[in-house]
Amino acid sequence: MSTVLHLPDRGATVRPAHVHAEIARQPARVMQDWQREVVAECGRHATLCRPVLDYLKRTGLLSRCVLLAAEPGGPMVWKFIGQTTIKHMGAAWARTNLGRAAEADERTDFGKVLADSYAEAIDFRAPVVNRIQVAGLPQPLDYTHSLLGWRSADGTRAVLSCVHA
Fold first, then answer.
1. Domains, the chain, ranges and CATH?
2. pTM here?
């Protein structure tokens, strides 16, 4: 089964040469109710599986999420970028990065800044909550996300980022 992702073109947007992100760990109590609901649903499954994705689609929460995955030994790759992220980063950024390694984006340091948090969410199977402040966009961005991670028996890894902006 294939998924087609349509990223609407909202006209030419001038982007700065580099976007910088700073990360600060937050306690779980700062999660929004919808993020807690996603954490509870994900906790019912050993891996990021079809029932989790069906839940996110059915509840309308998929648009608030970002999904990254990695083959055994490979880099974390952007697999799905939801509308909340597209709204702030732009459709061109999403088009450029979808299917690429998170650390490969030369204009942002998201992949490098978040790599440790991704690994922690995967290794400890517990939500990781961060506040991210982004400089270099036309409008400053300050958001929180809850990261949920999985590792399958074959070493495949996945991270679901529930973004509240």
1. 20-164 (3.30.450)
2. 0.85
